[in-house]
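Repro:
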Amino acid sequence: MHRFILLFFLLILSSAPVPAFSAGSHLRLTLHRRPESTGISRLEILRTMIHGDRRRHRMISDKIRRRRRVCSVPPSPAIEMPVWSGAYTGTGQYFVRVRLGTPAKPFLLVTDTGSDLTWVTCRYHGRADSPAPSPDVNGGGGRRSKRVFNADLSRSFRPISCSSDLCRTELPFSLSTCPTPASPCAYDYQYAEGSSAQGIFANESATVELLNGHRMKLKGLIIGCTSTSVGSSFISADGVLALGYGPNTFVSRATAKFGNLFSYCFVDHLSPRNATGHLTFGPNPDLFPHSPSARLILEPKLQPFYYISVAGISVAGELLRIPASVWNDSSGGGAILDSGTTLTILAEPAYKAVVSAISTQLINVPRVEIDPFEYCYNWTTAAAAATAVPGLTVHFTGSGNLTPPRKSYLIDVADGVKCIGFSSTPWPGVSTIGNILQQEHIWEFDLKNQRLRFHPSNCTEGSFYH
């Protein structure tokens, strides 16, 4: 798992029979913030998240290198789930509530565009040594206990056999062990920051709610029944919702039903606890028809990551001198959009150009030393009050330019202290646009046309920033 600084969301899916739904409906999930932890400073949380970001990025880079060496559904209604930020809990994810099984039970899952395994803490044939279920999945005060999925009680739970072609050739991190042909397909899934999950693969259903209020079953999902998980990434969640690109992810199943489109909107990471964003499968009614866009690079060797075609970055209106190879995925570079990484991580040539340009504009503001950031400033001084933070724009190939709010790259790390919120990775290496730079925008992934559309928004229905 991964994730690191403040932002994350909860998907909500409700249960009920499957009635007919109207052509104008869609599914939306709301993103919710987790409650504040006590006794943990903002800086300590940021340090933990940045450490996880770096480990996650190393694993992403390793996975990309390995995969580089290898090698029509009509528009429909939509579903929407609320998403909550996990800020100030010591983790850096967004959470969504998903209802799994028959009868459907609610679970709090991490939203992860860099993952291709959806899993839940699970007990099957009584084998899992799992914590007791918690009565609270609504984001109440204090640290919640994990809710455990009892697979034996779900009428729709179907283990995938280890002898199947699906297990042997397609499922991520499946193990070669197969005691009998009917034995379940086992996995050992490793995450970028060092976390891991072990269990068995199965087919299962989720109950989702359409925008028109009707409910339906999303059948044929491949999920992981996790008996053992290791790492701090999962402390506040029951598992992971895989939003990565690939043939067997939650995204592949949901978008096949809802028009090959999904989108999300992350609220500001410092917004009130009750603020929610949303995760939508199907057309997003809040996105403008002619919103800016970028080209999505979707290739089997790059799965499950969403590569985007970047042309350059400008600061204070000036295009920076960054080698074109930094944005070229075929030459060891490229850029991905990742909901699970907090800070934006830039390959070294881009990082040096960006932080140099921003810090030059802030030369009169007193510097302070705060590890692990390279550039931090005392923002309580008169010099800071008299200094304008330079604008930053990410230029995509095509018609899209992302101009994030200044708080998304000059971030608050402590009272009266702001730091340039970028991290670096050695070149050659892949750059990652993290969720802080993505906040307060709707991001729509058009998988059929391989386009990424986006627009500023505070994530409430019908509200945009122009």
